[in-house]
Amino acid sequence: RHRSEQHNIGGPAKLPASVLAQAQKEMVNYKNTGVSVMELSHRSSDFTKILTGGGTGQFSALPLNLLALKPSMSADYVVTGSWSAKAAQEAAKYGKVNLVLPKTKKYTDIPDPSTWTLNPEASYLYYCANETIHGVEFQHIPEFCGVPLIADMSSNILTRDIDVSKFGAIFAGAQKNIGCAGVTLVIIREDLIGKALPICPIIFEFQVQVGNNSLYNTPPTYSIYIMGLVFEWILEQGGVAKMEEWAIKKSSAVYDVIDCSNGFYVCPLDKGCRSRMNIPFRIGSAQGDEALEKKFIQEAENAKLISLKGHRSVGGIRVSLYNAVTVDETLVLVQFMKDFMARYRQ
Ligand code: PLP
């Protein structure tokens, strides 16, 4: 059936045909930028007026739903980077937050769990499985008895095999490995549902969402459709096991160049917590030679390698190796890094 042959007057949503045609065209190449509209930086002017719940919404939803699980109204937060720091800050609006690690701004390692100051009466223990900005990734699930474990897997879900049964809740903003920004995936243990604080907005109440099959309000249908396509794609490639195999291959190739560069490329992270998804590094020295880093970004762009600028709070370079980045693309980057080093090493 052709769209122009029917009049969709009563459906749950309606968009101008020309907008849909435009979206179709820009799906692959947005306004001749060479990237999809879904891959565009959300800081570009086109997006500044759009608000979403996303992963950040869960920074509020989790404490609002789970803080009252125990009379302590207190939660333990493992802060290993700026995303878990933001989550802890948000939770502190609604109850007590115990930071189990000493405060720091230098997120380069995960202190041994035997040194964590845990509260056995905490309602839950929260951590970020992969800190997207600082590149700190947990290689093992921290296991402690008696306190439900909550993980932000926004940037590494479906990139490694995980035992879901070890968690009270897992959440992930979709945009890294699942689909479009805005749609958020939440997996929650049934016995933790139903204790939301009275001030919890209804849209964040897990009991309401579960009771309505996540259809309490109008769902982001397009994003969910895209999510379905991504899940099918992952299965066709060989599932999460294949994604993990690729992630190891891709990240090892980049870390190998860094580690064999004799200090030309410097990744500040402890080797035990280096992320397979996000690799921040500096060029020239541990503090970074900014002129050289600028050159790296420019020359990389000339070689069609884009978006390598590090997060503004960290500086330097950041490589992000999400599932959709191929091994071959990564090898192009690796070769570029080697060539750049050969050209500029003193
Ligand atoms: N948590 C992590 C680990 C992230 O990387 C991000 C965003 O990049 C968020 C949470 C916030 O997600 P959103 O931007 O969807 O609110």
UniProtKB/TrEMBL annotation:
Which top-rank group of organisms is this from? Answer: Eukaryota
Family membership: Belongs to the class-V pyridoxal-phosphate-dependent aminotransferase family. SerC subfamily.
Q: What is this protein called?
A: phosphoserine transaminase
Section of the entire sequence shown: 469 to 814 of 814
